[in-house]
Each structure stands twice: as structure tokens, then as C-alpha cells.
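Can't attach files on this board, so I'm pasting raw text. These are the components:
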Amino acid sequence: MTGKYDDEAEERADEIALQAAALPTLRPSRDLWPEIEARLGPARGRDNALGVVRGAHRASGRAAWSGWFDQSFARPAAIAAFVLVVAGGTYVVTRWSTAGRPAPPSTTAAAGNPKSGQPTIGMITRFVAKPTVEATYDQEIAALRTIVSQRQSKLDPRTRDVIRKNLAVIDQAVAESRAALAKDPNSGFLVDQLNQSLDTEIDLLRTAALLPTHT
Amino acid sequence: MLVAASDAESRPDGGVATDVILAAAGDARAFERLYRAHADRVFSLCARMTGDRVTAEELTQDVFVRAWEKLGQFRGESAFGTWLHRLAVNVILGARKRDRRGASLISSDEEPDGIAARVGHQPGEIGDLEGAIAKLPGGARRVFVLHDVEGYRHEEIGSMLGITSGGSKAQLHRARQLLREALAR
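---
Top answer:
C-alpha cells for the assembled complex are below.
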């Protein structure tokens, strides 16, 4: 009898534990940010903050890569190789996908504007016009570029030079992807290439922002 | 420009790594984005650990102010969310120690809360459980929340609360027993 009671009690305790693990997130009754913001003092120890939070990059799932990357000897070569592979690939496939073939028929033709290659509202496609996505990329890139540019004087000149050159390569790849997309706006492949180039730029900038100074 | 929404929205960390970098450099807007992404989870922890929403809102503010101050020390060995969560636990427990010296905002270890009902919960089984957790004695509630809700191990809980892992197990057993009785009523 007692054994059965204990079993039932144990089972109920397990049920409670399962329910507890699945409890939903609670929300505060109001937006707490204004009060938090009012209490934020000047950032302490921020001068070296960027050197200290290097691992933030690692925390996003790049442990092995970052560990190797942190060796100063390998870093410039790694940046160069990484960027060249991605940007070079983008260049090749962009050319391949757009060379020698006409721009695909656009829905604007059906709308009576055959000369325009721009997408129009109502186009049926798996891609959607998302200016906010582009703005998000641009904002993130601009913010990171500001930080990287502020840190330039503290970086090893060789590393700085490699970063500068590789950013130029990526910029070129982004510009070519955008130009190709302007001609072939329905190409999912080109969208992927552009996204990949933008992600590469963000990755490189994040890495540059987190590099230790004067290695 | 056309961007595949699914691609853009599935970026590996949703920009969190960049926001951590920017916030560490003193960018309050980036820190606000981090706050928006993590506020509910931090508040949930505070509310369940204290059993009181008002105290939890104060503590949530304290957690983010502390995070702002300490962000320069974030070394990135763990994900930002994990680091913040651990910081929140420390802030909550620190507040408890402080309050034990003065007027107590956070319940003592042994006295069941008179403020439990203020956690606020919806009707139904989950609401009943939330209410029952809030009514647990402070020590049992903290261990239950850290173990069964947040998934910490007894060794970690012991280290956070300054008790042995055996003590943590005993508190958990007690908490589950009290919850079982409360929910059976």
C-alpha cells in the first residue's frame, strides 16, 4: 500500500518537474528600458572592452576557428583566404549566372512596363522585398566599420592592411552581386550570393572588432 | 533589393554577437536590443525566484544595469544569454543577502511568502503551478526554480547558494513534496 502510494507520489513529482521545465516565459507589466537607460552610467572599462569580449565571436559557434584564428601568424593569411574563397566564388558564379543570357521576364512586363527590370508589388516569388532587412545589414555593417576604424591605430599594421584589402574584395563582391541582381531580380541564387557576401563582411568586421591589439 | 526573408531571418545569432561588441564599446542602442531580446527571460527568473512581480521588475532593472557595467568583462566563454542568466542569479541572490540585513523584499528561507499571490498567473494547471511555486518557502523555491525550471545541476546550485549539493537535493525534494500537496488540494 505504502509502496503504491510512494510510486504515485514519485510519478506526480516527475509530472511537476516536467511541467516546471515547460513553464512559459513571463513578461514584466511595463517596459523597463526607460528606467534602465536612466541608470546607465558611462561605460566602465570600455577602452579595453573590445579586446576582452573577443570570445563573443567564439560563443556564436566558432570555437575551433577562433582558437586557430587568434594566432597572430595565421590571422592575416586566414582572413585573406576566407575572403578570397567567398568573394572569388561570388564573382565566378555571378558572372556565370548572368553572362550571355537575357534578363528573365519580369512581372512588370505583364504590367505594361517591359523595359523595367525592377520587381513590382504583387510579384509572385519566394523572395520578398525587405528593405528593413537591407537596412539591418547596412546598419550592422556601418556600426562595425565605425568600431573597426576606431581601433585601426591599435592593430598590428600587417593585420590592418590585410583587413583593409579584404574588405575591399568583399565590397567588390557585394557590388557585383547587387549589379547582377538589378539585371536578374528573380534569381534566388544571386540573392543567396549577396546574402553570403554581406554575412562574410559582417563576420570579418566582427572578427576585426574583436582582435586583440598590437599582437 | 530583394533578400530572401528566410535567409536573412535565420542568421546564426540574429546579430547578438555584433550587439554585444557594440554595447561593450558603449553603444546604448545595441544594449537596448540585447535588453529586448533577453528581458522576459531575466524577468521570469526574477519573478519565480522571488515570488513577487514588483520585486522582480526592480531586480530585472538591476540585472541589466549590472550587465552594462560588467559587459567589458564578458569573455565570451559562454553565449551572452548564459552569461546574463548567471549574472541575474547572482544579482537576485545578492539582493537577498542585502535584504536579510534590512527590511526584506525577498522572502526568507523558511517562511512561506505572504506575497506569493503577487506573482500573477493565469488560471489553469500552469497558473496553479506558478502560484504554488510562489507559495513555496524561499529556500525550497529557489532550488526548485534553479533545478526544475532553469535546468541547473545540484552542484551548480550548491555553489550559487552556498549550500552542499546534498542540501540542494533535500530542498528540491521538499519543494516537490510541497508542490504535490498544494496541487492536490
